[in-house]
Amino acid sequence: DMPERVVVARPVEDEVTVQHAGSWIAGRRGVDDPRSANAMLFTRPVSETYVMLLAEADRVEPHDPARAAGLLMTAALTRFMAADQEHAAETVRRALRIAGGEADQVSMRGTSIVAMVHAVYGEVDEALAVMEPLVDQLLAVDPLGEDPFGLAAFAQTLSWTEQWDRAYAMLDRIVGAARAAGAPSMLPLPLAFLADWELGHGRIAAAYATASESVQLAAATGQTTESSFSLAMLGRVEAVLGHVEDCRAHLAAGLNYSRRTGARSIELFGAAALGLLELSLGHADRAVVHLAECQRLEETFDVRLPTLDQRAADHVEACIRSGALAEAKRGPTRTVLE
Predict the structure, then answer these.
(1) How far is CA 143 from CA 60, 70, 191, 194, 331, in A?
(2) Which end of the chain offers a freer environment for a tag, N or C, measured as fewer CB atoms within 10 Å?
C-alpha cells in the first residue's frame, strides 16, 4: 500500500542567507576544515566552492601536502556536480600525485572520487578494484567516524556498479547512524541515494517516503545544492506513481536549483525523469524528446555509464512504442537495443 502523499517542505529560497552561513562557517573554521568543505559543497554555487578549495589547496600544499590532496578530492566532487568530468579527473590526478598515487592516503572521500571517475567513464572493473579492498572495513566502522558524505558517495558508486546488497547495507548504516546521532544535515544525500536504490528494486512506497524525507531535510537544513538532487529523485518516484503535477513541480524546482548553483549533472536526472513520466502516461513520442535530450547531455558531459540515470532502457521502449526505430539504433541506445 502506498503511504499518504507527503507534504514536501518548501526549499529555502534565501540563497544569500544560505551562502552567508557557508561563509560564516568557513571564516570560523577555515576552508580546509572538512566540516566547512562539506557545508560549502551543499550550500554554495559549485564553481565558487571549486575555486575556493583549489586556492586553499595551493596555499597549504608546501607545508601540508596531505591536507592539500584532501581538499583537491573535495574540489573534484564539485566538478562532478557540475558535470565537468574532465576537470574532475584532472583534479583527482593532481591529488594522487601529491599523495604519492595512493587514494587511501587522501581519505575515504579520495577513494570514493577515484572510483566515481572510473565508474562515470564506464570503467566498472577499475572502479571495483579501487573500492573492493575497503568495502568490508567500511561496512564495519561507525559511519559518523568516517567522512559520511564520502561514504555515501562510495555507496552510490557501489550501486552504479551493481553491487546492490553492499550499497544498501552501507546506505542503511549511514542513515541509521545519522538518525541516532540527531544529525539531520547528514541525511539528505544518503537518503536521496537510498531512494534511488529502493526505486530500482521496485520498493516504490519506501522510495517515495525516503525521497520525500530527503527533500524536506535538504530544505530545512538550507542545502540548496543538495535540494536539486533530492527533488530530482522525488520527481522520478512520482513519475512512476503517476503523480503528474507533483512530479513536474518538483523536477522544475530541482532544475531551477541546479541552474542557480551550477550543479549541471542534475539536468541528466531531470530529463530522464520527465521521459519516464511521459512514458508512464502513454505519451511515447513526448518521452522520446526528453530521453533524447538526456542522451545528448550524457554525450556532452562524457558520461559512459548506462546505470547512472537509468535512461537507456526507457529510451529504447519509448522509441519502439512511438515507431522511432532510427532513434533507438543511435549511439549508446543502440547498445542496449542489441
Answers:
(1) 28, 18, 14, 15, 40
(2) N
Range name among 34-38, 56-60, 197-201, 285-289 with the lowest pLDDT average:
34-38
Q: What is the C-alpha to C-alpha distance for residues 267 and 282, in angstroms, rounded to an integer?
A: 23
**C-alpha to C-alpha distances, 151 to 87, 137, 228, 299, 313, nearest whole angstrom:** 22, 12, 20, 28, 29
* Cα distance between the two ends of the chain: 36
Q: Which residue has the cell 524525507?
A: 213
d(CA 210, CA 193): 9
pLDDT in tens, 274-290: 999 999 999 999 999 99
Residue 121 — left, alpha, or beta (φ > 0 → left; ψ -120 to 50 → alpha)? alpha
Are the CB atoms for 8 and 245 separated by under 8 Å?
Answer: no
Give the tens place of pLDDT for each residue, 300-325: 999 999 888 888 889 999 999 998 87
Residue type at 245 in one-letter notation = E
Q: What is the DSSP string of 157-179?
A: HHHHTT-HHHHHHHHHHHHHHHH
In angstroms, the CA 202 to CA 36 distance is: 37
